[in-house]
């Protein structure tokens, strides 16, 4: 049965998300408020009985001096990705609508898992001199339907965005993440899943008197001070403080638990801070920051364990550490972060990645050239 697509209200969009076990935090209406340089629109797919069966948040980025847009659906849309008629029923109506709105290119990130590697498999891959990237190592499990989805997208004219840069991170959202499954597990079971170093560090932080507390909007400058230090140390471009203030206001207005801030303190000093995002049964460690001062009291492990404990109490089915590098070489400065996340147990997860559909090939080539020069 054919589906029709139309714009929907924030309330309709939120109701659809609330009825699902989980959805990306980038596919809720408030995420559009976090991105003022983009125009946001909520879209819904409807069946013959006019019942909503899919939804997506589209962000439109204008091209200077032209009434044309890049249309982006980060980690979405929320549709039936395994439908045999994926293009005809779901994606073609979306492309037609976005073209009418002036989009010259569409980018999306199907929330479809391809492969998983257990923490043990990740550890073995790091130790294997022949494994240069995570995808060189044997996966613990595969999702065969994901390969069918990829084939359908390619046949329909979609182009997969390869992970950019030597560290495996793409320019958009991460293709490789690390997740700890919570569903059906007690907190004690999750604690037993931590490696010995994690458990030791949590205990060490407790003995040293590290206190992990929840913060609010007024604590964002303290978080930001550590975040700026982390950006300099780890060689990435920091977002401005106003970005996090806007994120806090937008997300907590939509849902008081959508965004949380945690601070790890020791003798009056804030040593680490992090944000956690929650949608349904999915909790994300979003942004983290720490100082090199007093690292010996292990504030990061203590903070993560508090966040994991709170996420479990909220009913989360998965705790998501977000992006990891898929590069396993010791020279990579991000390998330490992969080791840290793998120490929490759980699994590395590969998603289908981001895909582009050029509606105007000339403008698409110009965009690709611009991105390559950045």
Automatic annotation (TrEMBL):
Question: Which keywords accompany this UniProt record?
Answer: Acyltransferase, Cell shape, Cell wall biogenesis/degradation, Peptidoglycan synthesis, Transferase
Q: Please name the gene that encodes this protein.
A: femY_2
| Matching Pfam families | FemAB (PF02388)
Q: Which family does it belong to?
A: Belongs to the FemABX family.
Q: What is the lineage of its organism?
A: Bacteria, Bacillati, Actinomycetota, Actinomycetes, Kitasatosporales
* KW Cell wall biogenesis/degradation (keyword) present: yes
Superkingdom of the source species: Bacteria
Q: What name appears for this protein in its UniProt entry?
A: Peptidoglycan bridge formation glycyltransferase FemY
- Organism listed in the record: Streptomyces coacervatus
Q: Is Ribonucleoprotein there in the keyword field?
A: no
């Amino acid at each position: 049965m054919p589906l029709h697509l139309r714009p929907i209200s924030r309330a309709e969009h939120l109701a659809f998300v609330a009825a699902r076990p989980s959805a990306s935090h980038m596919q809720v209406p408030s995420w559009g408020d976090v991105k003022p340089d983009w125009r946001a629109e909520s879209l819904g797919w409807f069946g013959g009985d006019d019942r909503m069966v899919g939804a997506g948040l589209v962000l439109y980025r204008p091209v200077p001096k032209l009434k044309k847009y890049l249309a982006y659906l980060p980690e979405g849309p929320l549709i039936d990705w395994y439908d045999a008629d994926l293009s005809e029923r779901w994606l073609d109506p979306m492309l037609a609508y976005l073209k009418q709105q002036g989009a010259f290119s569409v980018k999306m990130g199907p929330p479809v898992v391809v492969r998983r590697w257990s923490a043990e498999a990740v550890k073995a891959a790091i130790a294997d001199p022949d494994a240069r990237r995570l995808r060189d190592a044997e996966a613990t499990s595969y999702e065969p339907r994901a390969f069918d989805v990829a084939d359908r997208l390619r046949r329909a004219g979609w182009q997969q965005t390869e992970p950019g840069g030597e560290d495996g991170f793409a320019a958009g959202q991460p293709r490789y993440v690390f997740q700890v499954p919570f569903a059906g597990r007690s907190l004690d079971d999750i604690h037993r899943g931590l490696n010995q170093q994690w458990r030791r560090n949590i205990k060490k932080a407790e003995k040293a008197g590290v206190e992990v507390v929840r913060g609010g909007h007024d604590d964002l400058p303290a978080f930001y001070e550590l975040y700026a230090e982390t950006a300099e140390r780890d060689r990435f471009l920091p977002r401005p403080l106003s970005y996090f203030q806007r994120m806090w206001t937008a997300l907590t207005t939509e849902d008081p638990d959508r965004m949380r801030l945690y601070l790890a303190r020791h003798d009056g000093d804030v040593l680490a801070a992090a944000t956690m995002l929650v949608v349904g049964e999915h909790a994300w460690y979003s942004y983290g920051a720490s100082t090199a001062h007093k690292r010996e009291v292990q504030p990061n492990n203590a903070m993560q364990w508090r966040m994991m404990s709170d996420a479990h109490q909220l009913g989360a089915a998965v705790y998501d550490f977000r992006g990891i590098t898929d590069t396993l070489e010791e020279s990579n400065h991000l390998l330490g972060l992969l080791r840290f996340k793998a120490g929490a147990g759980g699994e590395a997860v590969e998603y289908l990645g981001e895909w582009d559909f050029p509606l105007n090939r000339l403008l698409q080539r110009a965009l690709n050239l611009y991105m390559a020069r950045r």
